[in-house]
Amino acid sequence: xxxxxxKSPLDWETYVNKMVKVAAIERHxxxxxxxxxxxxxxxxxxATFLENEKVSISVVLGHAVQEVEILKEGDDEMxxxxxCIFAPEESKAYSP
Amino acid sequence: xSPRFQALLGGxxxxxxxxAALRQRYLRGLAAAxxxxxxFCLRAGVxxxxxxxxxxxxxxxxxxxxxxxPLGVQAxxxxxxxxxxxxxxxxx
Amino acid sequence: xxxxxxxxxxxxxxxxxxxxxxxxxxxxxxxxxAMEAAMQLIFDxxxxxKQPKYWPIIPLKL
Lengths: 96, 92, 62
Fold this sequence. Notes:
The complex is a heterotrimer of chains A (96), B (92) and C (62). With 96 residues, chain A is of the alpha+beta class. Chain A has 3 helices and 5 strands; from the N terminus they run H-E-E-E-E-E-H-H. Chain A has helices at 9-13, 76-85, 90-93, and strands at 18-24, 28-37, 44-49, 55-60, 65-73. In chain A, strand 1 and strand 2 form a beta hairpin. Chain B is α+β, with helices and mostly antiparallel strands and 92 residues long. Chain B has one helix at 3-33, and strands at 37-42, 47-55, 61-69, 72-80, 84-91. Chain B has a 5-stranded antiparallel beta sheet with strand order 4-3-2-1-5. In chain B, strand 1 (37-42) and strand 2 form a beta hairpin. The relative contact order of chain B is 0.16. The model of chain B has no long low-confidence stretch (mean pLDDT 91). Chain C is mainly alpha-helical and 62 residues long. Chain C has a domain at 14-50. Chain C is 56% helix and 3% strand. Chain C has helices at residues 13-25, 29-50; one strand at residues 53-54. In chain C, helix 1 crosses helix 2 (29-50). Chain C starts with 12 loop residues before the first helix and ends in an 8-residue tail after the last strand. Chains A and B meet through helix 1, strand 2 and strand 4 of A and helix 1 and strand 5 of B.
């Protein structure tokens, strides 16, 4: 387990809705708005907004995370935008 | 109950609520990935494209379809989570 | 006789899992468990139906 995986849910929550730079193993880097951190695997889910109105989702697995740097805080509008990305549609999305 | 016990309880409930919210959003994200063309970045600089199928609860493996390997397309495959560093897909 | 006359009921795996979930997620435990079960069902069903093999065959992380 790395330092990132050892953090608590309350620690991870402080990164949600912020623009971050994730340094991963093998010198990979990812940037985006943090949607969530999975409390089971410590994987970080990032969103980036593309010009064509699409949203790119990147998930960096917890075991690969070395460092997470906060670049920018999200304002209320951004929080709202982020909360709509995985809108609660369980019934539809989870139907087998 | 002592104030300390109450604080502990409160802290616990707060952590539970936060953990639940984080997990729920993550599970919704996995559901959103289903059926989408996804690029997986593996160890040792290996990058492969596939269609996201499903993930298991314990984060052991990803089930993918139409995995394009250097040796051809594999109709269905499992990627080990320990091999995967990151993956990304588009939402429209 | 020194032993207890009534044995505790055998613990069922489902109950133990629910107790763990309660500890982790509190009031939201049942909801999270249902979402996880739905996801695992899809994973298991895909594995049954498609018989996917691990790729690469040898783990990259040794």
